[in-house]
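Run: sequence + zinc ion -> complex structure.
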Amino acid sequence: MMVFGGCGFDHSRGTASSDTNSAGAENDTDVVRYRELPVHYKIASTIPAEFHADIRAGFSSWNEATGVEIFVYDGIKSLQDDQLAPDFTVNENVVLQTNRSGQLAADAAQGSDGGPGPLARTYLKGATKIMDADVYLFEFDTYFVNGRPDTGDIYSLESVVAHEAGHILFGSDHSSDEESIMTAVLYPKDNPKEKLGPSQSDADRFEAVYADLIE
Ligand SMILES: [Zn+2]
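>> structure
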């Protein structure tokens, strides 16, 4: 049986107060997007160094697909193992890993059948403009290192991070376009349907949503 990973995006952290359009200022759109370009991000010190290249490749895949310097790596965010709550990374976009199963938030959307939790989740703050984003990689040792006990499937960090990076750019929506990196279901390494980066349609979406911020 093939078991695929869901993103498990959690929308409950959004707040609607911080970026209501003010009259005369950038009120031409209510499309959800990050507040500025480029998007700076850090990698938590709790993620072993051997995985950093794959994480950075996930972000860079957007730069390569679009020819725009969208994501900029800003170095290591020093955190202790017990500092995984989003409160420790306010105003910094950080990638974190945990061996907890997708239940960082009390209202985490767990598989309704009691199955495995999501692979990852991106917490966004802001409403139409995303002010802060943090990417949590759940069950790190299982999903990304050793493989699921039931299937042996290991997920590509590059693939999962590329997907979560898309949430930083576009908010919580998933795509029904099977070519998009933003489909709700993610595939493990060596699956023919695995996608390592954005599709042309994802790149086109970026160019449309961020048109006024790119040359
Ligand atoms: Zn997702």
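>> summary
The chain has one domain: 5-13+31-213. The domain at 5-13+31-213 is CATH 3.40.390.10 (Collagenase (Catalytic Domain)).
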